[in-house]
Design a protein that fits this description.
homodimer; alpha/beta; FAD/NAD(P)-binding domain; seven-stranded mixed β-sheet; six-stranded mixed β-sheet; globular
Chain lengths: 409, 409
């Protein structure tokens, strides 16, 4: 990676840029996943992270087979399995009545059909595994690097950070998340506020209250709210996510974690769900946003990936999975690039390969969330009957998302 | 049947009343069905009909196995099958896209499971068969008899008609339909306007336009509208029912058949559905009403049955079927009555036997109608997915309604 400190803008230094060099903006799960994939391919990769260290915040995260298949190809699945838990089943219950709505196998035939396991683990564990692997594979991971602009001239991308440093690369991957500053290069769109807020908690198992189920993912569906519970770190931790329609967030305000608002949102739910709110962290909450799908992620030699390209609501638990798919897709597409001039076609191919699929995931996640949160009798009845009609052998709702064929299109 | 013309009110003439006599108010399908069942049992039965003849208006009607099983036990099923059509399948389609949503077997395993056929026939044909059979069985069918009141004194019911005639009977069955005047004896409730209006048409098959399917019941589900099509009279007639939310009826007005309102209601539907509106009668329409379930149908020796007791929206096609179940249930319960004093217990037993079931049918019919008519994206998606998830071997939605066990409880 050619690093030129303080290069004045406009100076043509193309001769100093080594070919095949890739610069990644953003050191989250998507960024380090892409770095790992591309380093394994033999590319020279630099990752610029704004924060002072490569570290993820948050709680648990779900890795579906469409992502774990890729983690295995990168040689990190064993570590992921070691740090995570493979839940037996995904169980949905009505949060108001407690009634079980459906109970989906996540091992056995499911894992066999999709050729890879379903795993839940701590976000920071996944991130750490990917950072370590990317480093070992040769990625140059840099912190405190706050990118302010990317420009392409003569097939060279120039990346400027807030301290005046200018990096040059054949390709810049903008993987800087929901609030991506690089997205402004391709779209003037804004994030879309869902009105829903997530509270999370990943706490030691022996401190968690009312843990009935230590081996499954359990989802309670309530009116304008839901709760997800699963174990983490080989069952030594318990993860809880509570997501609800926040009156303050819906009004456009942002109110920091508000215990009263949280309690109120679950007041119609069974006591077990209400008590489980005590397993959440008290002082932090995550307002939930996504964006409308856009067609174009490319500006010159810059390409958006991950949440920067297609941020989604978390109802399908696919945010990180889709970022991993992106990394894998870009790895495959770029594998044949030997001449720097071929990058333009590679970026376009990635865009056309991935846009429809990720747009579908974005849209389906929204709809899935709506279906979870219905609060009027008829839609609730239809939703519950639909869930109860599901059978393990009916794979129509999962094949498009988890199936191996679904990704390579 | 003791008939006393011009008996002054208040005169005690109990001695003149023969025991075991039953008077039925209302000569529609429910009334003549009850008359048939009770005459077969050896009861003396008089039916009073307000109209100048025993005749049904309307178009087609569906007889599900819960009713055809009973028609068979009365010895009239062969005639019904001869006049009707046994559809092969019940097919639901999305009226806006034309997509098939589900396709339910109505013969084979279905008929076997429920021990009786599914038949569609003309209302007037079913009515005529029942009238003829009731007459043959000894029922006294009287027209132009407009009942104005029923009173019970000393275990004798006195029925007064508008011309001053007073009838006395051990039991009066009030089967005088949705707008039952006798219901006022047990409830001050009002009919509930659904806002939906039905247009019907039963026309010769060779005059019907765009008949693609002559052997099934086809239902198109649209936003705030639906359409049902099936053949009648051994396939020589074609029956169409269009039901939609009428703006004028929803405002509380009653507007006679309005072609413009009809066309507007189906304007989002596929051309095939819009053209099929031409198969409807032009000058008649039926605003649709039901009532809330009530607990008590008994006042002295008067008992409500059929629509007078539990009027329902037609979405389960169970109005006539439930009236036939009523007739059968009353027949069974009254079979053991030998002493007139036992009637009080028999009426109470009928009430307690039938109230929960018919209330469930009333409520489910409403919900079923709501599910058919959804007009917003998420409920429509859930409804369509639910319909598409249905399988013939899944009998959970029909067992409670059509199963033999369902009725005898």
């Amino acid at each position: 990676m050619a690093l030129v400190v303080g290069e004045p803008e406009g100076v043509n230094e193309d001769s100093g840029v080594a070919s095949q060099e890739i610069l990644i903006v953003g050191g989250g799960i998507g960024g380090v996943a892409a770095a790992l994939a591309l380093c394994r391919q033999g590319r020279k990769v630099t990752v610029l992270e704004r924060a002072p260290e490569f570290k993820e915040v948050g709680a648990g995260l779900q890795m579906a087979p469409n992502a774990t298949r890729i983690l295995r190809s990168w040689g990190v699945l064993d570590q992921v399995l070691e740090m995570g838990v493979q839940p037996k089943r995904l169980i949905f219950r009505d949060a108001v009545t407690g009634e079980q709505l459906t109970d989906a196998d996540l091992r056995g035939e499911f894992a066999e059909r999709y050729g890879a396991p379903y795993v839940v683990l701590h976000r920071s564990d996944l991130h750490a595994i990917l950072v370590e692997a990317a480093r070992k594979a040769g990625a140059d991971l840099r912190t405190n690097a706050d990118v302010v602009d990317v420009e392409t001239r003569d097939d060279v991308a120039r990346v400027r950070t807030s301290d005046g440093t200018v990096y040059r690369a054949d390709v810049v991957l903008g993987i800087d998340g929901l609030t991506s500053s690089l997205r402004r290069k391709v779209s003037g769109d804004e994030v879309v506020a869902s009105g829903y807020v997530a509270y999370r908690g990943a706490i030691p198992m022996d401190e968690a209250l009312d843990v009935d189920d230590r081996e499954n993912v359990v989802v309670y569906l309530g009116p304008e709210c839901h709760m997800v519970q699963y174990p983490l770190r080989a069952g030594t931790m318990f993860n809880t996510v509570a997501v609800f329609k926040s009156p303050s967030f819906s009004r456009g305000e942002f109110v920091p974690a508000d215990q009263q608002e949280l309690q109120n949102a679950y007041s119609d739910c069974i006591p077990q769900v209400q008590r489980a709110l005590l397993n959440l962290w008290k002082t932090v909450s995550w307002p939930m946003y996504d964006r409308e799908p856009i067609d174009n992620w490319v500006d010159g030699r810059m390409l958006l990936m991950g949440d920067a390209a297609h941020p989604m609501l978390q109802y399908l638990a696919q945010g990180a999975c889709q970022a991993i798919e992106d990394a894998d897709a870009f790895d495959r597409i770029s594998a044949s690039v030997t001449d720097p001039h071929e990058w333009n076609a590679a970026l376009a191919e990635f865009n056309s390969t991935r846009a429809d699929r990720t747009a579908r995931v974005q849209r389906t996640a929204r709809t899935w969330g709506e279906a979870w949160h219905v609060n009027t009798p008829l839609p609730k009845l239809l939703r519950n009957l639909l869930f109860k009609s599901r059978k393990d052998e009916d794979t129509r709702y999962t094949d498009w998302l988890y199936g191996a064929d679904s990704i390579s299109t």
